[in-house]
Every structure is written in structure tokens, then in C-alpha cells.
Amino acid sequence: MKKFIAELVGTATLVLIGCGTAVLAGAEVGQAGIAAAFGLAIVAMAYGIGPISGCHINPAVSLGIYVSGRIDAAEMVRHWIAQFIGASIGAAILYLIASGRANYNLATDGLGQNGWGAGYLGEYSLAAAFTFEVVATFIFVVVILGATQKTAPAAMAGLAIGLTLWGIHLLGIQVTGVSVNPARSFGPALFTGMGQLWLFILAPAIGAVLAGLAFRAGLMERRDGDRP
């Protein structure tokens, strides 16, 4: 139950702070500020709930960790349930706050939802969006698995992971708004529409599986006897 609550709270916090910065303060802080909000939210949660649940707060991360062999299927599913509930709560809180602004309009202002194509940020194509989400999720999960392996300095893991997410957002906000996290996409989509949600479930899953397989095969994990 502690892990469930930690993952729920952590995912809700990520959605509220990350998507919330885009919706409530995007004009003031710009895309660099939005990227920082997502990265710093991960850093904060990594140290806040990491000792309890590992701070996955992302179904793709849980999937990658499962494929790598570090958790079993039952724990992965429990994490997924907590993450999707948490993202929904975070998006609901954000909508409640945003709708208190006199000129807020859900249809035009949104909730920091992900997307692609005509009318969405840089208007990138489906192929570009899919490619970005697969590759970015692969990189993100590789950093997580690498930074949390037994031979890595544990105290630095949260910082490395948060900085990676920050950098990914700096690169990709114009492409998809950056998901790399099906739960983060699901929460806002509950309110804004789910027509494009499939990409932000499928592409991160592919990237996460590829990263997990690389570590399971020992290609990217330092093991006893390996030379630095």
C-alpha cells in the first residue's frame, strides 16, 4: 500500500507541476521553464518517494524495469494502476485550478496534453512524433536503469534522471509536448480528448521494452568482472 500511495502521489505531482506550468505559467516562463518544471518535479519525487516505491511514476519506466528483470509482473501492474489514477487526479486538480481563471477555455488553453500534426505546436508529422517518443523514452529508461544499477552512485540517481527529462523536454516540446510517459498523457486526455492518446501509450512502451531488453541482455549493465 505504501508503494501504491507513493506512486499515486508522485504521478499526480508530476502532472500537476509539469502540465500545470505549461497551462498556468507557460506564457511567462516559456518552453525552457516548462522543461525545467518537468525535470525538477522528477528530481523532487525521486528523493521524496524513491526510497518507498523507486519513483517510477511512469508506466513505461515500470515496463522497462520489468523487462530488465528487476521487478515481477504483479508489481508492475500495481504501479500502473497507481500511476494512471495519480495522473487522473493531478489533471483534475489542474483543471479545477485553471478553470478558476476568468478567461480560461479548455478547448483553446488545454491541460498540457500531448499531440502532433496540424494545429499542435510545431505541427510535426505522425512519423516524427512516433520516432521522437520511441527514441526519447529509450534514452530516458536507459538513464533510469543505468543510474539505479547496483554499481552506480545511488545518491546521484534522482538528479541524473531529472536532468535527462529536462533535456528531453528542451528537445521535444515542439514535436509532441513530450510524453515518454503514458500516464502523464492519459491524465490530461481524460478532459481534452483521447483521439491521439494511442501514440503516447504505444511509442513509449516500445522505447521502454528496447531499453529493458538491452539491460536484461547485459549490454548496458555493469556486472561483476566488467572493467570500467
UniProtKB/TrEMBL annotation:
Name assigned to this protein: Aquaporin
Membrane spanning stretches: 37-68, 80-98, 124-147, 154-177, 197-219
GO MF, one annotated term: water channel activity
Gene3D superfamilies xref list: Glycerol uptake facilitator protein
Membrane topology recorded in Swiss-Prot or TrEMBL: Multi-pass membrane protein
UniProt main location, coarse: membrane
Localization per record: Cell membrane
Family stated for the protein in its record: Belongs to the MIP/aquaporin (TC 1.A.8) family.
An annotated GO cellular component: plasma membrane
Keyword terms of this UniProt record: Cell membrane, Membrane, Transmembrane, Transmembrane helix, Transport
Stored PROSITE patterns: MIP, PROKAR_LIPOPROTEIN
Top-level taxonomic group: Bacteria
PANTHER family xref list: AQUAPORIN TRANSPORTER (PTHR19139), MIP17260P (PTHR19139:SF199)
Family matches, as InterPro entries: Aquaporin-like (IPR023271), Aquaporin_transptr (IPR034294), MIP (IPR000425), MIP_CS (IPR022357)
Pfam families associated with the record: MIP
